[in-house]
Amino acid sequence: MDKKGKLSILYLGSLALSAVFFPMLTGMDPNVFDPNTVAIPSGPSLGHLFGTDDLGRDILARAVYGARISLTVGVVAVGISTTFGLIVGLFSGYLGGIVDEIIMRTVDMLMAIPTIFLILTIQVILEPSIYNVMVVIGITSWMGVARLVRAEVLSIKERLFVTSAKSRGVYSFRLLVKYILPHALNPIIVAATIGVGSAILTESVLSFLGLGVQPPHASWGNMLQNSLSFMYEAPWMAIFPGILITLTVLAFNFLGDTLREMCNPRDTHA
């Protein structure tokens, strides 16, 4: 594993551990305000390492809670999209013919719809909540996974070991699960890893627009939205959640690149 992959794992592991254990170890509540700093955001200090916002809430505690929200949204949303895309891609590639043609043309039409506008429309219709965010992101991002899985299945099902299995009477579901699926997992894992970063970014945008995680619950997106009125007086309100979003998305992208190189070592010598 290369250096950027190790650093990404170190960062993401530290972020996940902080999100789980920091609130328990410190007892800090992201929604509790400091009465001495209400309406007057205070800068970073020993008492508040990331400073406080306009309601006197500790930005570090809210940023850590936001990490919990973002990581949960990313993992669950990608889990939904990967599962759905995997099922569609497997059957499309395996069945082929007219079924494959219909499924892929449907996928093409769905991919032609601007995803962010589709997500915004669904969120406006539904009541904005963290659960809706996870589901909406998941059901609007499976198409790329389906195309990737389908391409892998089309290649794998023509290989000798699959032909040999068919000659022994292995067909349909067992052939898909036992012989084809294991050989298609590598690119799926890579796509899912990169997809987590994309889902976190989408959640941040939705929360920034007021259609994601709702106050008083903290997320990096609504922390940025809350900072707009204090960009000059209290820039730390935007700097810290902005840095965390950037670093987290980059870490998942770097980890995905590293996994791709590990799964396809020949590419590194090309």
Describe this structure in words.
It contains ten helices and no strands. The mean pLDDT is 83. The chain has a domain at 58-155 and 185-269: MetI-like (MetI-like fold, Orthogonal Bundle). Helix 2 (59-95) runs antiparallel to helix 3 and helix 8 packs antiparallel against helix 10 (236-263). With 270 residues, it is an all-alpha fold.
Q: What are the main properties of this structure?
A:
270 residues; MetI-like fold; 0% strand; single chain; mainly alpha
CATH architectural label of the domain at 58-155 and 185-269:
Orthogonal Bundle
Strand content: under 5%
Question: What is the CATH class designation of the domain at 58-155 and 185-269?
Answer: Mainly Alpha
Sketch the topology as an H/E string, one letter per element. HHHHHHHHHH
- CATH superfamily descriptor of the domain at 58-155 and 185-269: MetI-like
* Helix vs. strand class: mainly alpha
**DSSP summary: helix tally:** 10
pLDDT below 50 for ≥5 consecutive residues: which ranges? none
The major β-sheet equals: none
User: Gap between N and C termini, in Å?
Assistant: 18 Å
Number of strands: 0
CATH overall fold name of the domain at 58-155 and 185-269? MetI-like fold
Overall residue-averaged pLDDT value: 83
Helical amount among residues, as a percent range? over 70%
Instruction: Using the alpha-carbon principal axes, give the shape.
Output: elongated
Rounded to an integer, what's the Rg over CA atoms?
Answer: 22 Å
